[in-house]
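Following up on my earlier thread - several people asked me to post the actual chain instead of describing it. Fair enough. Here it is, all 91 residues.
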Amino acid sequence: MTGRQPRYSKEEHAHRGMDVYERQVRPKVEAGNRGKVVGIDVDTGDFEVAEDTLTAADRLLARHPDAQIWFVRIGQPGVHRFGPRVRTRCP
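Reply from S.P.:
Thanks for posting it. Predicted structure:
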């Protein structure tokens, strides 16, 4: 059994993923899904919205076994956070 191999450089993968997200996916998922994760197949433009990356990937790979997946957390600058979480109080 062989694993999926990346077809693009990291930069090309990121460019394709963000392009598909901004042009095709974001208008469809932004309302009501803030904080959820969207997994996007950068080749087909097909996507899955879920609570976490694993669930989104599993659903997408069930339909596209050779998917090249880019993840975006809806309404957030990154999928995962590194370092301590800074909490701010809302008035």
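The helical segments are 10-29, 53-63. That should answer part of your original question.
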